[in-house]
User: Fold these one by one.
Assistant:
Number 1:
Amino acid sequence: MNDYASLTPSIDSPPQPDSTPGQIFARLSRAAGIMLVVVVPIVVSPWGSDGYNQVKALAAETLAAVAVIGWVGAALTAGRPSWRFTAAELPLWAFLLAVLLSSATSVNPRLSFFGAPGRYEGLFAYCAYVALFLVGAHSFGSHQGFRTLTQAAGITAVLTSAYGLVQVFIPPLFGGEVFIREWYSVPGIARIPSTLSSPVVFGGYLASMIPLLLASSVARRDAARLPWLAAACLALIALALTLARAAWVAALIGLVVFGIAAGPSPWRRRVILIAAAVVVVASVGLLVSRAGPPAAIWWHVIASGDIGSGSVAQRVYIWSRTLGLIASRPWLGWGLETLGTVFPYDRASLVQVFGPRPTIVDKAHNDLLQIAVSIGIPGALAYAAIWGAVVWSAVRGWRRAGDESRVLAAGWLAAIIAYLIQVQFSFSVVALAPVVWLLSGAACGWGADSALSAGKMMK
């Protein structure tokens, strides 16, 4: 019996009047984890200059602390869950060590510890991410535990998608939303951020959630499959309205991976055809009628192929100068959240690439480069190894799983691949990263649990 199940009363067993301290702590850890995947993407603040990331960072770090307290409390009082080694164990600790050393030698310790205003991905945030990975592995590391998390995350994806569609028809509700919608809208086109702090982040979030929503539909054999299919269609329509091109590509690749990994079946083919038809018709209608004129939308889409202008030129400009900064401090980097202060600004070239609007480059717009310039090349290699281990664990879990579990594993494999693709053209954010780290830990824990069960069966 796996650790998750051992701490959860059986459905058929009579209710226990007095719960043990170990059970109470275990429930606290799981409740905090479930709350995190629900609260962090949704929570916003209508007060202050930052209505999004500040409150999300506070929520993520608070819930991570509660989840760790529950996990450690259960281990101390009940001896369970016992320590579970996952595929990402060694690179995870190496990455945390690099983060700690880099923060101690940062060119701006305050930014590296607490995070920059509007971002909040300093030392405390990354410690919370590592803690959430471990909580996922130990408190949700089973098929049932991972499915519980994905269902909670799926319900949240429905809520955020619905609000994103509502934003097409209503004006912004508070000052922070006004700023975000105006800042990210391109001439003649309105883009929707929902509650995820920007259309780019919202698109990345949906690209990761859509395969899990489809998996929740395909894996079922009852009437509940239809609401999950509708949820996936809703999320796809919302994704189209973000006009986040990297997220579009990531979602497409994720759907291809899911279609291959989930395996052939008449129902699955019908799911894909129905979803595609609904999404294409609804998305085109809303884009043309509400987002902007077709010519402006088409120009925005094809601009991705022009490396001499637009967002592509901006990213090439940032990447080239970030590589120079990495070469200057290759071992421990400049410190978390310090790129905005050390970036080699040149007003003339900035105006040429970004236009006359004031520009601060505080993110490399490539997750691996951002980590390398922040904590050094060794830390970046450990970081890459973490995600390589997560993908490898997903593939291994998919191969070993059967029936419903295989479909869910296929959905997770597609989800993590979509996330990793889009984040290489964007960056980690507190609105999405905590959810991904927790799910990654749970999936790796599930893989470790499956491997242990298979080993016992062979004996």
Number 2:
Amino acid sequence: MKRRREVSVFGLSFLDVMFCGFGSVILLVMIINSDTLAQRKEVQQDLRGEVMRLETEVRIGEDYLVGIRNTLEEIDQQNIVAQGRTREALSDVEQTKIEIAALQKITSAQRQHINQLQSDLKRVDAEKQKLSSEREQAEKQGRSVRRFIGAGDRQYLTGLKVGGKRILILVDASASMLDETIVNIIRLRNMSDDARRNAGKWRRTVHTVEWLLSQLPVDSEFQVIAFDVDAKFLAGEGKWMAASQNTNLNQVMSRLNVLVPGGGTSLYKAFERIRGLTPRPDNVILLTDGLPTVGQSGNTGGRVSGKRRLSHFKQAVRVLPGGVPVNSILFPIEGDPFAASEFWKLAVRSRGSFMSPSKDWP
């Protein structure tokens, strides 16, 4: 009897099955592992993006933190300044309190002193009103620095303003100031000095100067120049004199009363003297009777025609300093028809005035 073959569980078929199973497992592991690697790469990429985003946020946060720190520092500085101002304000408040306390310490004696001062003030106001009333009365009588009363108390010169800080009076002392007619001038010129001093026209001139001096403002300065062929100051040695001092006025009138008219008329010399005054006058009053007979050269020889006299006048006007008003008082003489018009033109150009008073003035 044949021997029966033993069956082995580890036969070929079993091994084939086992290897096939292992192969399937390996294949499955490889497939799973491949998907795992892909997912891992995707996860890593996602994580890198997240890390970059977080790093960006960190940098932004750091920048913001720096800004906050700077803001805090600025706030700290402002706080320090505010604290300093607060301390100053508190100090001012304390000082104010001290001052208020000092003001509140006014005693009754001080209040009485204030009441006394108020009483004194009322008294001073009353005196002031009284003085004002007296001053108004004085102004009604005129601001005269020298008393002058003419015939019939005539105290006027229409259009003439005796004003200014420095007033210059020019007095024509030539022979023509003796009379209005040529015949009487020649007759009086050959008389004695006393006769010439007492000539009617010359006395009117002297009285006019006295009236002008009486009308000078109290706070003004003045000078008086007498001129014929030359010009000279009557007082003060060419310097301005105070109108408020009667001695100056009396000295001028004393010298004018002893002056003897004579010679020709050089208006050029009179106007030239103005340039030597410092400071310049702001008002000039000219007393004359006609156009000049002598020019710059001082030549008095021969008869002087009307045309020549007009030339001498224009020559004198050219030497007159600009900006000085000239107020002319004309005592007319016969044979000089152009005098009035020329002196009127001078008044218009210099913004002064021109007049010819009546014979009974002043």
Number 3:
Amino acid sequence: MSLKNVWRGVALLAAMTMLLAACTPAATETAAPEPTVEPTAAPPEPTAEPEQPLTFGMLLVGPYNDHGWSQAHYEAGLYVEENIPGATMVYLDKVNPADRPGTTPAQLAEDLVAQGAQLVIFNSDDMKDGATEFATKYPDIPVIHASGDVAWADGQNFLDLGNMVNVMPRMEDTKHIAGCAAALTTETGKIGYLGPLINDETRRLAASAYLGARYCWTEVLGNDPADLEFKVTWIGFWFNIPGFTSDPTQVADDFYNSGYDVVISGIDTTEALVQARAATEAGNVVYNVAYDFEQGCDEAPEVCLGVAYFNWRPFYLRYIQAYIDGTFAPAFEWLGPDWTNINNLDTSYAGFERSQALSQEAGTQLDGFIAELAGGLNLWSGPLNLQDGTAYLADGEVGTEQQVWYLPQLLEGMEGQSVSE
């Protein structure tokens, strides 16, 4: 189901919610217990404690403790608090049309400002319109939007806003690694990809996993590319919204019950991992590659090959420090792993944490693949065709930043929808 359909359905819930609001007590907030450039070598040294405490706000699309995307951002906020004396985070989680019908991210950002936020982070591509609206309305309040391209001068949606920063780890690199781990492990040659909604970001990440899988299937294992099946099933949003998205638990089960012995997750939550454990307990041999959060395998490490994860810590620390220093400026950054140590949380914007289900042999092969990527291997090179057979990159042609970012379809060799219905 497309995001538009989710919003249409949620509109019905919004009307019911407004009728009930008059007689329902107000809910309380959840309480907390690359253009590509080389990554920085180390985070900046914190300054002395500011004369007045700094408060920064964060809007999270899902629960702050979702073991996935939103928790990765939340923990990056804690990292800022730990590394900048006097910094305090205020946040609202579950900022999505199902959990907060009748409100917009821009309105909720105003709520954070009312709580003292001097800078606001919008943590989802789904919040692009809200982040832009807020940044336009409040030009003196710095805005960091995780994903998005409004600040990209060479992008398709550039707006000259003096207070907007777009940041995104180059997850394409570690999705290559996720796909390779899947290909090195599958016994059936059938790899499933559990996808969220369909947009430029999710197409290019699914395609990146496929490219990594295809390379390791053919170049490392020496298999026939025709024997590799790679199927993408989209649920319709970043995580399950009962009644409006496909159930990710059911989608994962459908994969595991039809011969797909490795499922790569592309959603914010861990259903594919949980169902891999259930299928294994029922006597099947299946695996999952988790997503988003460096501890994403912890629920079931025995069936998890590893997790491709985002690390927002260096981004947020650097830009909040820049605000303190008076040097905050518009920017677009799409930054990849620190290849000297992709799991260094101080310096690497994307990582891959392997787990116990990855065999020793596959681990050695994966090390070799990672070394190739670190040495300059670029899988976004031709010949590459789009899913409908249209030539996308000619033989020997290397994809531009724009061609990768704005991938219009899945790639030839991938099964699944390329656009929302």
Number 4:
Amino acid sequence: MALQYVLLFAASGVSLPFAGLWFRAQGLSGAEIGTLLAAPMLGRLVTGPLLAVWADGFRTRRAPIAILGLVMALGYGGAGLVEGYAAWAVCWFVGATAAAALIPLSDVLTLKLAARHRFTFSLPRGAGSAAFVVANLGMGAILLRAPVDSIIVWITAASMGIAVLAALFLPPEPVGEGTALRGWDRFRGMGRLLADPVFMTTIFAVGAVQAAHAFQYGFSALLWQAQGHSAAVTGQLWAFGVVVEIALMWLFEPWRRKAGIGPWSLLAVGAVVSVLRWSAMTLAPPLWMLWPLQGLHALTFAATFLAGVQLVERLAPPHSHTAAQTLGSVLSAGVLIGLATAISGPLYDRFGAGGYWAMAGLSALGLIAALAVRTPLRRRRDFAAEATDAAPSPEPPL
């Protein structure tokens, strides 16, 4: 599973920070880049649930992962072979849609294996973050000497690696009891989650804080380039943010569980820090200040991500884990970040670094939603413990 995340984030470690540079080299404006990058994110409102239901129709969890890896390679690879905005938009939509669907599918498989084999989910997930660092540094160095098309070649190669790994080496973990679930059963489980206000408000809180990274993902490289920073420095700044993310996953996360710090607390801290981080970024800070601000990525991204995975797992019934993780991913890595990315292009064109103010506001909405569900989450956990006539879970409290 660590290798699965390594390949997955070796691809996103290049596509997230450097896609804007590649599309700019093709002559696209900031608004065009923002729209093109946002389209697959917004499309996840439809493609996310459909792909989740489709994935649960297989006997094993690795089968849809292998297929999506191949589709991802075809989409991203195709973008490097075509010309014109419409053709780029179609290819990028296909590749990015497959890549986004792979994340919740990988998370569910890892959570299942972690529970059975008693390893911490954050360990293989942290390996993916380490690959993100290597990808950032590697591509930053490559772009000093190689053409910008190296970005597409890298992403396509990593995508093919995912397809091969899943088909040949991932554990054959069954879906359900090892038989394909009926379509109606899959849709019904997702419908129950959509009708749960506590679940939906919780994933909105997580999604809002995650989506507030949209302006950073799409336009930080361009802003830093305008300030005179090279592509190599951009890669180093992104890498540093992920290094502290890895430290949180590998070092802080085991301590957090022992200390009894619950996932809701992680979410609240991440939301508060997110408001502060993006407010500071509106000042177009100098390089020395960018380093500590990038260090806050451990809290604005990693802490809220881990909080979201754990809260979703607790709120969803066992037979709906795939649907639940997908809905969380659809909202955070789809609808919300898609909307944020769509407005980021015009904000960048008009206000430059001032566009970060919108991200600070989105983080504040996430904080408000997190505060709203604190009491319902606690009541639900206490009720579950009473219903099973058991003591509260040894896991950290909410």
